[in-house]
Amino acid sequence: MKIRTLIAAYVLALAIFLFAQQHRGTVAKPGGFHAIVDLTHTINGKVPKFNPGEEGYRVRTLQTIEKDQYFARYISLPEHFGTHIDAPAHFARGLWTVDQIPAERLVAPLVVLDLRDEAKKNPDYQVSVEDIARWEHAHNQIPMASVIMVRTGWDSRWSSAREFRNADAKGVMHFPGYSLDAAKFLTEGRQALGLGIDTLSVDYGPSTDFPVHHYTLPHSVYHLEDVANLDHVPATGATVIVAPMKIEGGSGGPVRILALLP
Prior knowledge:
alpha/beta; 7-stranded mixed beta barrel
């Protein structure tokens, strides 16, 4: 009896060991998706800022493993810093703050417009309705209630705040954004939930009056700015998960953006 028990225990232990070895380092994916792409830049003190004089990321250690047996830090940063979300309340009083955006608007079909060639030729390029029409001619109509991202290739400059801001001698920044007409079309004609881009703003660099912000946010369309890794996402077919820090009353906040690839 004891021998049979020992043999059974040995076989069970061996099976558990082999199963663990086979699955070590793998993570189960949600049904229907084969890969997950992180569209988020890491937050640190080198993140390019919209205004170079504004307060950035600050961190100090509160506890350490060596002294306190656990590790913890204190951090502070602006709401609109690094890969972040603009809530409608950012430009529209009385509309959703970041904690009030309905959760069902944070998971949606993802559309990526690749405009790297246009951005190379003109750093002040603005996405046009014609660009959207060409995309739809190639990929069919943008699904209603999608999140639309624009890939300009600007995130290749991320390691240099000077190159990412691309300011001229007068301090005017030069980077691509959306035109007001394109933003209106996506908001009204395609009922977009969110507009994203891999630059500092959905409005192009030289803008001083931020017309896209003034139009889309009052229509409850949120923005995703400083998006990363759009080169790893297809033009269509992916699903995006937008997971902002749930800051009470926030005009925006840091966000983790994940693309689920079919």
